[in-house]
Write a structure and sequence with these properties.
Order of helices and strands: HHHH
Number of domains: 2
Low-confidence stretches: none
Number of helices: 4
Mean pLDDT: 80
Radius of gyration: 35 Å
Helix content: over 70%
Strand content: under 5%
Shape: flat
Structural class: mainly alpha
Largest sheet: none
Length: 119
């Protein structure tokens, strides 16, 4: 059984002082974090109030003009038969699959990674 060397009173006081300093710095750090949390809580509260006010305003305005704006929005969502025909003709003319297949792209990427040593 190893024998322990008795600690001098000066050593034990220094050790305690070091522990107190460590604990004090940890307490100060926790206090700073609490202050930051309180500030963030205040900011979030103000933001929540502002967002609620905007939501109420939008809801009030939206219910009044909802029917008129819905028809305008619906008209903007749909394409006409002529637009669909034009898009179909454009896709048939271009045919993106003729440019490169998935396997060709994978092969090009593999060659690139082999050449530059990335992946």
């Amino acid at each position: 059984m190893p024998t322990q060397r008795p600690m001098r009173p000066q050593d034990s006081i220094e050790a305690l002082n070091s522990e107190f300093q460590t604990l004090d710095s940890k307490i100060n750090l926790m206090a700073q974090k609490l202050k930051n949390m309180e500030k963030n809580e205040e900011i979030m509260g103000r933001t929540l109030i502002t967002l609620n006010e905007k939501l109420e305003k939008t809801t009030r305005e939206g219910s009044a003009g909802a029917s008129a704006s819905r028809t305008q929005a619906d008209e903007g969502k749909f394409a006409t038969k002529q637009e669909i025909k034009e898009l179909r003709a454009l896709l048939d003319a271009i045919n993106p699959l003729e440019f490169a297949t998935i396997d060709q792209v994978k092969e090009l990427l593999d060659d690139y990674f082999k050449k530059y040593g990335k992946k």
